[in-house]
Specification:
Layout (H helix, E strand, L loop, with lengths): L25 H4 L1 H17 L2 H23 L6 H20 L4 H19 L10 E3 L3 H8 L4 H8 L1 E6 L2 E6 L3 H96 L4 H37 L1
Antiparallel strand pairs: 1-3, 2-3
Helix pairs in contact: 2-3, 4-7, 4-8, 5-7, 5-8
Length: 313
């Protein structure tokens, strides 16, 4: 038994069976029939009747053969039914995948679904490896299952989920009706992908234009900040120079006053006159002496006048 004949395929099945046995084995072609047969076989083993297993397997094989015979008698529906099927696929794509996801993610999902459909329809050997997709596969999970609406579109294409070896697996049974629906779903994908690609390109261009505009805005903002910084620096420098000028003017004025005072004192010394400082000092004592002499004169005068008044009386 082989574990995987196609390990490099992105949707490798990793199923433990011989490709030569699958799908001709009816129990492997129809997983539901396989489950029913396994259940019946288990019940037969519990009853201790090995022949019952063979009978159940034969019954399931006959049932599947009848399904195949019915499938062989299937004829393609008319254009009206096909048109309605295409509209159903288009709604699943527009309202399920494109509307609920970004254009880039929707494009990736649609392209992956188209690749799966093309691999199945373009395989002349009807190899089951293209019709069996493990849900744990990273490519399938990231590009389709993680995209809203991707699972629903897989089901619409004809895939059905089954649990094989404790792993969820999508399997497409090669029936005429499902292969016809697969082809219709594939055509809808192919028709929508160019529009999605155009939208993605427009989004890229818009994003690039937005990034350029944002870069220009940041550059203008930085230039304004630099200009404001230069204005502040100029104002601070101007105010500093003004303060230095005023301080210089004040110092010069004080120095001129000192120089003038020194010059006046020098001129007074040349004439033998007291200096301004000496005049201020002497002026205070001379004034007090003159005041005392005036007071003495006034008292003498009052004494004289009073004597004459007393004599006259």
């Amino acid at each position: 038994m082989e574990t995987d004949r196609y390990p490099d395929h992105p949707f490798s099945t990793h199923l433990n069976h011989e490709p030569s046995i699958y799908p001709p084995n009816p129990l492997m072609t129809d997983p539901r029939a396989a489950r029913e047969a396994a259940l019946a076989a288990a019940e037969a083993r519990l009853r201790g009747d090995p022949s019952a297993v063979e009978r159940e397997e034969k019954a399931q094989a006959d049932k599947l053969a009848a399904r195949r015979k019915k499938d062989e008698g299937w004829t393609p529906p008319g254009d009206k039914v096909d048109q309605e099927t295409r509209r159903t696929f288009a709604r699943l794509l527009d309202r399920g995948i494109i509307r609920d996801n970004g254009y880039r993610q929707a494009l990736t999902c649609a392209e992956t679904l188209l690749k799966i459909a093309d691999n199945i329809l373009n395989d002349p050997s009807n190899d089951p490896k293209f019709r069996t997709l493990k849900a744990s596969n990273a490519t399938l999970r990231n590009k389709i299952l993680n995209c809203k609406g991707g699972h629903e579109y897989l089901i619409a294409l004809g895939f059905r989920t089954h649990t094989i070896e404790f792993s969820s697996t999508y399997i497409l049974e090669p029936r005429l009706k499902r292969m016809h629906e697969l082809r219709l779903g594939r055509d809808v994908l192919e028709a929508h992908i160019p529009d999605l690609q155009k939208r993605v390109e427009q989004m890229k261009y818009s994003q690039t234009a937005h990034e350029k505009e944002e870069a220009l805005r940041k550059a203008r903002a930085l230039a304004e900040i630099d200009a404001d910084r230069d204005v502040v620096k100029t104002r601070v420098e101007r105010e500093r120079r003004l303060r230095e000028y005023r301080a210089t003017v004040d110092r010069d004025a004080q120095q001129r006053k000192k120089d003038e005072a020194v010059l006046v004192n020098y001129n007074h010394r040349d004439r033998g006159a007291p200096t301004i400082k000496e005049e201020n000092e002497w002026g205070g004592s001379a004034g007090s002496e003159e005041k005392e002499e005036a007071e003495d004169d006034e008292s003498d005068y009052e004494g004289l006048g009073g004597g004459r008044r007393l004599g006259g009386s």
